[in-house]
Amino acid sequence: MIYFLSIGNGYLGLSLSSQSQIHFQTDIRSPFISTGYSPVIQISSDTWEVSSATIVQMKQGLVRRIQCFKFSSERSAFVTHVLYAHRKRSSLIIQEIEITNPSEHTLDLDVQRKKQIDDHDYKQIDQEDIQFDSTKDIYQMTTNQISTRQHNFILFVFITNKILSNIHIKPGRYVYKFNKLLFLHHTNQIFFSQEKQTIFTVVKYSPLLSENSLSNQTFFQQWKDKLRKQAKDDMSDALSTSSIRLLKEHIDTWSLIWQSGFTISRSLAPSAMNGEIINRTIYYVLCSTPSPIYDLNIEESKRNELNQSLFQIDQCYESHSTL
């Protein structure tokens, strides 16, 4: 599955797979430019047997990934991921991770984020740890530069949670409780260890910049400062908003985008295209289409212009009637 976000005059693409990485597209006719970087956290274990399943909630614009970590035939733990590219805050990507360990064993997990691939077209300009007033967590801000085949350049800034390479979830406890009603009754109550974390990633990038313009240090520094400030402002705004509200904003916006679907009689014929296949196609089209009209930061004049363009009659069919 691929999400596209509209940023300025360009687009940001993210595949929410294990091989995911962020791609830039400066306009709809240009090829994608891969950054080799992914904000999606991957969780694995060397000692627990893992199996997983992915659920796409098409009408909510969410992807859920459930991982089951099996220790024995009777004991297991599980990790739930909720992934979405926020449709109202176009620079924001969110991954909610909830780890539950009801077993009597400590759950040791490896946490990874795909690293930048070695590429001579890519250059990391600087990287620093930053903090925001609304949280004690440490975030990492990275400023990068990538060149295109046309000898142009893009500056881009990532801000995301700084993560540990491994985590340890304490075991749950089993408590036996006796309740005396009409007779002595014995029940089990399970207490489990649980950890939840929300990973925020903000991405801001420039349009295509020429090699000559980047050689101008003043111009280069202005773009760098502008992107860093925008990224910080967007992250600060997201962190000051509750996770529940962010999720509701996204689902409500997605509902405005997803205003139609198909319901048709189900066919049992071989290779029949039933409603779920048609709606799945609509979902992927919508995911691959930016929606700047719903962007939180869009100027009101631009929003009005986009609204008016939706009601223009263009190349209406005026020939003979087909009925």
Walk me through the topology.
Blueprint: E1 2-7, E2 10-15, E3 22-25, E4 33-34, E5 41-44, E6 49-57, E7 62-70, E8 76-85, E9 92-101, E10 107-113, E11 122-130, E12 139-147, E13 152-161, E14 166-169, E15 173-180, E16 184-191, E17 193-205, E18 209-210, H1 211-215, H2 217-239, H3 243-257, H4 275-287, H5 300-309
Antiparallel strand pairs: 1-2, 2-3, 3-4, 5-10, 6-7, 7-8, 8-9, 9-17, 10-14, 11-12, 12-13, 13-17, 13-18, 15-16
List keywords for this structure.
323 residues; 5 helices; alpha+beta; Beta-galactosidase, Chain A, domain 5; four-stranded antiparallel sheet; 20% helix; single chain; disordered N terminus
Percentage of residues in strands:
35-45%
CATH architecture: Distorted Sandwich
Distance between the termini: 40 Å
Note the total helix count: 5
Query: What are the secondary-structure elements, in order, as H or E?
Result: EEEEEEEEEEEEEEEEEEHHHHH
Low-confidence stretches: 1-10, 173-191
| Proportion of residues in helical segments | 10-25%
- How many separate structural domains? 1
Task: Describe the global form.
Answer: globular
- CATH fold title: Beta-galactosidase, Chain A, domain 5
What is the C-level CATH assignment?
A: Mainly Beta
How many strands? Answer: 18
Instruction: Summarize the biggest pleated sheet.
Output: 9 strands, antiparallel
Question: Would you tell me the overall average pLDDT?
Answer: 77
Question: What radius of gyration results from the CA coordinates?
Answer: 24 Å
The class by helix and strand makeup works out as: alpha+beta
